[in-house]
Amino acid sequence: MKVLIAGANGQIGKHLVKFIQEDENLEAKAMIRSEEQAAYFEDLGAEVAVVNLQDDIDVIAKAAEGADAVVFTAGSGPHTGPDKTLMIDLDGAVKTIEAAKQANVKRFVMVSSFSTDREAIQSAPESFAPYVVAKHYADEWLKSTDLDYTIVHPGALTNDPGSNRVELAERVNVKEDSNYTDSIKVPREDIARVIVATLKNDATIGKSFQVIGGDTPVPEAVESI
């Protein structure tokens, strides 16, 4: 299975390309913004496509040609304004979905936000609300297609080393007596592992689930969904 990773140069994306290249049944195609980012992926033996998510759908679709699956793990980052969030996390995601359709790629995995329902939008801090809104509508757009989608909702992302163990459910149990952010932490490395397991498990098609740090081995957690 050849997998196009949109946002490959991001922190989840780099882990994901590495894990895909280590799997004998998977092959990565890293979609990056500039040639300067290519060396890391070429050293892993991954194919590279230089594409900006603000390019036209046709440009993204060309990068998706020949792929069996697309993973969208791109993000505008925490230091950009609402305008860039709109252009990348919403419009970039929608264009990538449409590009997958145009390139006849049925399998699509979206990396979203921990919660993107209306309650999450209304309760989000002002600075974070545009991101949740963008993810909400990108998720809804994906669900309205006939793509074989999976939506992964990671908790509070950290750069801690992964443990290859998570808690994963449509809605995970969050301890009420603990600090909320601490209770939903999950290493980016483990989210990348979850994506790999998701790509290899057709039972995840049509599913959306939250992921936080936990005690269940990733393959087993994904299998349970």
From TrEMBL:
Listed InterPro entries: NAD(P)-bd_dom, NAD(P)-bd_dom_sf
Signal peptide: none
Domain (NAD(P)-binding): residue spans on this chain: 7-201
Pfam family membership, one: NAD_binding_10
PANTHER family: FLAVIN REDUCTASE-RELATED, UPF0659 PROTEIN YMR090W
Name of the molecule in the record: Sugar epimerase
Record organism: Planococcus lenghuensis
Source lineage: Bacteria, Bacillati, Bacillota, Bacilli, Bacillales
